[in-house]
Automatic annotation (TrEMBL):
Protein name: ornithine aminotransferase
NCBIfam families according to UniProt: Orn_aminotrans
EC number: 2.6.1.13
Organism the protein comes from: Leptospira idonii
Pathway it works in: Amino-acid biosynthesis; L-proline biosynthesis; L-glutamate 5-semialdehyde from L-ornithine: step 1/1
One of the protein's GO biological processes: L-proline biosynthetic process
Gene name in the database record: rocD
Keywords: Aminotransferase, Pyridoxal phosphate, Transferase
Amino acid sequence: MTENFSYFLELESSFGAPNYNPLDVVLEKGEGVWVWDISGKKYLDCLASYSALNQGHCHPSLQETVQNQAKILTLTSRAFRNTKLPELYETLHRFSGKNMFLLMNSGAEAVETAIKVARRWGYRRKKIPENKAEIIVCRNNFHGRTTTVISFSSEESYRADFGPFTPGFKIIPFGDANALRESITNETAAFLVEPIQAEAGVYLPPPSYLHEVEKICREKQVLFIADEIQTGLGRTGEKFCFERYGVKPDLITVGKALSGGYYPISAVLGDRETLGLMEPGSHGSTFGGNPFGCAIAKQALDIILKEDLIRKSKELGEYAMSLFREIPSKHIKEVRGMGLLIGIELDIPAREVCLKLMEEGLLCKDTHENVIRFTPPLVITKEEIDFAVGVFRKVLG
Ligand SMILES: Cc1ncc(COP(=O)(O)O)c(C=O)c1O
């Protein structure tokens, strides 16, 4: 096994661009909340691939969908129609209440698409002068890694030596509705926000924030865009996190768990007023809306509803947070979150703790030096949460 392990590590470090720093565990099998490394050691996955695996690893009914659809039809391009794309539209409509959808592949592409739609809406509906449309975003945001998206990141390591950047973005503090009100001009097309800043370290806004945001956007004729790529699809104890704050964004981006971990698929959810402004030729993607991805996404959404993962996420999230808060450790500064999107802030480097958790059978990921994210697949049971908290208690206690 040691030989095998160094073989994979060496191959990866000699050929792979070093843009990641993974924990040294080589996985080869996954089922539900569990994964196994090449020596057969079993771990509880407490990251769920940044919430892409809400339905758990290798979900049996998704496996069946993948196998069936792989035999029938996988790709048509949008040059021709297919049966699975309209079926997914209908499912997305029932799931979200929105009336128009645009399918892409990665999360960053969904965000790029939402930006294009917002700019177009700004020019055609709000009559913003040509090339002046501006989009307001929040400090410490994370919306992906493309050149335009990092143009409005406030994180230096995401941007260093990748300029020149795309203009047209203004950064304001997260959670500050007054800052939004003051920064809006006649040239503002949209406000793009994560309902909870997950990647930044699981930061929740003040309870009334999104309600004020919605009100300001309506008053000032600005589109309200919620990036639900990480917080959506059950993760925070509702279908979408914005529902927990009682608001209705104009555009929603989703990705990650829309694929149930099988195949990248993302979408912008909106209405005729916004997405209806995209005419043939304005946007596209060879794989966007392909029948293979659409069949998977439809099944992935069905699983979330059929298996009651939204209620589970809410109840088990509260249960897990209460247990984490009871851990008698001088190193835990704060436990915060919503549903099963939980951040545990430490006063010591989180990566060292993750390495110890790994030895004990938990796979966790540090974020921003001293926060550990606890975001397991939503199919986790109460007993598995007890096990995970027990390991944290042992390592941090
Ligand atoms: C809120 C949010 N938006 C966008 C993205 C980018 O998604 P992808 O990595 O699929 O491009 C992420 C990924 O972590 C995210 O958390």
